[in-house]
Amino acid sequence: MEASLLLIQLLNGLQLGILLFLLSAGLTLTFGIMDFVNLAHGSLYMLGAFICASLTQLTGSFALAALLAVPLTALCGLLIEMVVIRQLYSRNHLDHVLATFGLILCLDTIAEIVWSPAGIAIALPDILNGQLEVLPGVVVPVFRLLIIAVGLLAAAGLYVLVNHTKLGMLIRAGASNRTMVGALGVDIKTLFSGVFAMGAALAGLAGLLVAPIAEASIGMGNEIIITAFVVIIIGGIGSMKGAFIAALLIGLIDTLGRSYLDDVFKLIMSNEAAETAAPAISAMLIYLMMAVILAIRPQGLFPASSR
Amino acid sequence: MKKLLSNALISAAILTPAIFSPVIAADEVKIGFVTTLTTGGASIGQDQEKAVNLALKHIDNTMGGKQVKLIMADDGFKPEVGKQATDKLVKQDDVDFVAGYIWSHVLLASRKSVLDAGKFLITANAGPSPVAGKLCHENFFSTSWQNDQTPMAMGETLNQKGVKSLYVMAPNYAAGKDMVAGVERTFKGKIIGKDMTKWGKDAQLDFSAELAKAKASGAEGIFVFYPGKAGPAFIKQYQQAGLRDVLPLYTVFTVDSLSLPKLQAGGMEGVLGSVSTQHWGPDLDNPANKKFVDDFRKDYGSYPSFYAAQAYDSILLIKSAVDAVNGDLTDKDGMRAAMEQASFDSVRGEFTYGNNHMPIQDFYSRTVVADADGNWTTHIDKVVLDDHQDVYAADCKL
User: Fold this and answer.
1) In what order do the strands lie in the sheet with B28-35?
2) What is the largest CA-CA distance in chain B?
3) Where are any strands of DSSP class E within B161-287?
4) CA B12 to CA B28: how far, in whole Å?
5) Taking CA atoms, what residue in A is nearest to B43?
6) What pTM did the predictor assign?
């Protein structure tokens, strides 16, 4: 029983990590390549969720809605990049933070006007609402397995794109030395728009995968964006590999902390003290880990080279 | 010199309405209503606003022969914003009553502004223990409950159902701890697992790890308190984890008329048959409630939530006070005495006020069912706590 529970919790941690990866992939790209701090990345995650929720209601099919929502979120990202973000590249980080914070407020309000503040639930087909016995005694909700599968596929796709295509080469080059890439005659403007839209698509994908678990709601992105920043800082800014490993690490640590910390504490202190301390410490755990990793490796685990 | 003169004239022009406004105000009853009209909590505030407007419609917008002027204010789900809104109502608008308040922390931040100004404060939801105990005040009234009471009713319900072991989950903040303490106070079985999850700005909405633990614990039931959007999120994951047949669900302030339509739209049958406790329900059988629920559904197309029911009652309570003094708003003692009688037709049926001006009322256990039209709603099973008074009343010196 104990082993199967541990396995379930590991799967839960993996699933959380993969969602975090999808969100932080776009963030680390925009931060790494364009040197742009985008606080509003979480709003794209929210847009993905709301667009998918509306399309599910419209078409009656979650799969179809999900397929349409990803390019639509990318399109929203492209529009935002062209209208707002593009004007800000030459400014400093403080201006980025101010402008994208304003963007969060605007997008949250637009979402509130379009979709009402109540939030929307997404109805899943019965098969996705069910459970699957992966191993004897290890029963996992089907939808959580789907998140893991989709996330791993997206990660594999990104790996191929970044490491084995011309576009990927430019992205990696951009992360290492932006000015030089521009000097070599690469159309930086288009590259930036493309990368931003790709980040938006990934954020939208994460959002539409979360929506059937929680719901599409105003401000859902602001709740998770802090964790995504922790991921890219631990992973090394601009590094896709770093983001992937850091996301899984955080997903696992957070989940295992929530699962076992109170039992561990009960070994060394009274039950009552453990019950009070465990939730507080497990909420802090990922930040503690960030502090430790930054103390040892200030550049993060896998910094993009020569930054 | 000329400039100085014109400045003086302008200031005089600005000041004039302020000087004369109390004279105009005497012809009307001013009520400020503080609730959440923006952020994710706005659906609760909007439900309360609907109920307040319905109450004013039912009483022809008249109290003690005077017209009612309603001023809605938004607390933005934040104590500091709620306090600012309250200050404006008290100082600038000079209202006679301030009502509303969904959140305990907003109420605690705002209460002093109202009470120090000598105005009446009526909470239409929040019921933190201090305002019922040490911080009770002669001008403070509640049309809801004290936080601990509803989970205490749940503990009693669990005893009656013969549940011997329980897994408990709630958010890790003041009200969450109150709810857990409440159920622990009356539940006689064993609590074999407890998770207090992260709450606040980056609240935890993914409960996979906790649900796996709960299932493995082998408890006979799971008790949760997840208000707002965390509620539907929890119930979905509860169903997706396949716990409906393994681990029966018992909730307080989690399943309500705001979350049920969303759960139904999401096909979350897991919530059907789950049990919750409350002092009120849309099917509670009394004439005032029937009128309220029927008209609410006619006007707005949905069942009112308990937040709405309490907001409706707050307007009727104020009316009973103003009627009793024939609209003489300077007669504070007369209005207070009238409110202490709780003589209006409350949608919860008859109740009385305790020394701390918190209701002494019945609490019911309710099951989630589909109504005749197929809409999901709650059905009252029976009274669990009869004329129940909160435990903090003894600390109140009134």
Assistant:
1) B62-63, B66-74, B28-35, B97-100, B120-123, B140-142
2) 86
3) 165-171, 190-197, 221-224, 249-251, 275-278
4) 26
5) A118
6) 0.84
For chains A and B, CB pairs below 8 A equal 125
Burial (Cβ within 10 Å: 0-12, 13-18, ≥19) of residue A23 = buried
SS3 call for B169: strand
Same domain, B158 and B197: yes
Average pLDDT, chain A: 90
The full length of chain A comes to 307
Q: Can you tell me which residue has the tokens 């009470």?
A: B115
Tell me which DSSP letter residue A269 carries. S
Q: Residues 6 or more apart from A284 whose CB is under 8 A from it?
A: none
Which residues in A lie closer than 8 A to residue B202 (C-beta atoms)? 223-224, 226-227
Task: For residues B165 and A79, give the distance between their C-alpha atoms in angstroms, rounded to a whole number.
Answer: 55
* A86: CB partners within 8 A, 6+ apart: A189, A192, A193
Torsion B275-B280-B281-B284 (CA) sign: positive
How many domains is chain A built from?
Answer: 1
Which of B236, B247, B256, B257 is the mutation pick for testing A, counting most A CBs within 10 A? B236
Which residue range(s) make up the domain with A185?
19-128+141-296
Q: Which of A153-167, A253-267, B164-178, B280-294 has the highest mean pLDDT?
A: B280-294
- Rounded (10°) CA dihedral B98, B102, B105, B108: 30
Residues of B in contact with A259 (CB under 8 A): 209-210, 212-213
Backbone CA torsion sign across A78, A79, A85, A86: positive
Kindly report the nearest CA distance between residue A283 and chain B, in angstroms. Answer: 6
Confidence of residue B16 (pLDDT cuts 50, 70, 90): very low
Give yes or no: residues B13 and B126 share one domain.
Answer: yes
Adjacent-strand bridge partners of B70? B31
For CA atoms B37, B40, B44, B50, the dihedral sign is positive
pLDDT tens per residue, range A236-285: 988 888 999 999 999 999 999 999 988 888 888 888 888 888 888 888 99
- In this structure, the answer to whether residues B58 and B82 fall within a common structural domain is yes
CATH number at B372 reads 3.40.50.2300
Task: For residue range B115-129, list pLDDT tens digits in order.
Answer: 999 999 999 999 998
Same domain, B381 and B336: no
Indicate whether B175 and B272 sit together in one domain: yes
